[in-house]
Amino acid sequence: MPKKKAANKKDDVLEADPVLKRFATGYTKRTTGVGKKPLQGVSDAIKQAVAAGTKVQQIVISGEELKDESTGSSRLEVVLVALRETGYRAVRVLLVMNTEVAVQDTLVLAQHLEQQHDLTSLELLDVSLPPFSCRCLGQALTHNKCLTSLTLDFNRFGAEGVRLLTLGMAVNDTLRKLSLRYCCIGPDGGEHLGTVLAVYTLSELFLDGNQLTGEGCAALAKGLCDNGTLSLLSLQDNNIDRFAAEGRDGVAAVRALQSALAVSPLDGLRIDLMDNTLGDDGGNAVLAMHASRKEAGLPPIYVRVDPRMSAAVYASIGKLTKWKGGGGGGKKKKGGKKKGTKKKKK
């Protein structure tokens, strides 16, 4: 008798999940069928899902050229069209990094966000995103009610990109996390970011590595007056130690935060000011902010600061924060070692 053909795990998994099979088959036909090369990140995601017997929930595209050399069309578009036309709605995270996302790519991505509400997290990292692309994404968020996290780190679109991004977000109430780290946002971006805080229901805003300075931070702080949802505001390494135009220190920025939060009901808000040289004056302003909220009977707010200030002021802030390190690093022994640190054996 002829031997039975060995069972193929891939075929078994795909037969058990007909929608995944439709997506895998549909994507293959839309690429190899017309002479296009499939994106390795998409192929890997399908293979990993088949091997694990699960769904494709995350697609990571790293370092791959998105423009098809033969036709000039977007290879990203092929993926998104295959997802929509095959009805595959399991993908929750799309991460594109270390490549160039052209305006054409952003347009098809914005169209997908408007038409198919399945992604909950979109990350475009170091993809040379221009300001116009920010406008496309912002307009898409007007219609999208599923995306909760948007990360656009390491793109040099500056304050103009922030302005265009926020233009189309006025009616979005689902986005919870917005990350704009190292995006060349200068002092002018502070006002637009303040609008984000005042209007949108964000819980986390990451702005590390920009150049807001004290001026931009003071403008941003105004938006906190009307915010009732924020739990984390990260402003690390923003040159808040001085005003760019006037050469003043960053104390005014901290005082602006204090003024904005004087009557805010925010409970447990964490503000990260690491890698900004506030000095003793800035540190004392942080302490004054804590004291004024306590006196008013408001919930505490925790501020993490850079240790470039006197040990006494730094320690006082440390007693008021739940953060480890940066203004809350625990007690130190003589010689600068923290309590509980073991000595290395020679």
- Rg over alpha carbons: 24 Å
Q: Give the quaternary arrangement of the chains.
A: single chain
Quick one: how many beta strands? 9
Q: Please describe the biggest sheet, giving its number of strands, its sense, and whether it closes into a barrel.
A: 9 strands, parallel
Describe it.
The chain is of the alpha/beta class and 346 residues long. 40% of the residues lie in helices and 10% in strands. It has a nine-stranded parallel sheet. α11 packs parallel to α12. The longest helix has 17 residues. It is elongated, with a radius of gyration of 24 Å.
Short descriptors:
nine-stranded parallel β-sheet; elongated
Any chance you could write out the topology, listing elements then pairs?
Blueprint: H1 9-16, H2 18-31, H3 40-52, E1 58-62, H4 75-86, E2 93-97, H5 103-115, E3 121-125, H6 131-143, E4 149-151, H7 158-167, E5 177-179, H8 189-199, E6 204-206, H9 213-221, E7 232-234, H10 251-260, E8 270-273, H11 279-295, E9 302-305, H12 311-318
Parallel strand pairs: 1-2, 2-3, 3-4, 4-5, 5-6, 6-7, 7-8, 8-9
Helix pairs in contact: 2-4, 4-5, 5-6, 6-7, 7-8, 8-9, 9-10, 10-11, 11-12
